[in-house]
Amino acid sequence: MSSKTIIAVAKMYGKGRVQFPKEVREILNLKDGDKIYFIHHELGIIVEKAPKLKREKMGRYTVTV
Question: Suppose 50 and one of 2, 15, 35, 39 were both cysteines; which one would form an S-S bond, judging by CB atoms 3.0 to 4.6 Å apart?
Answer without folding.
Answer: 35
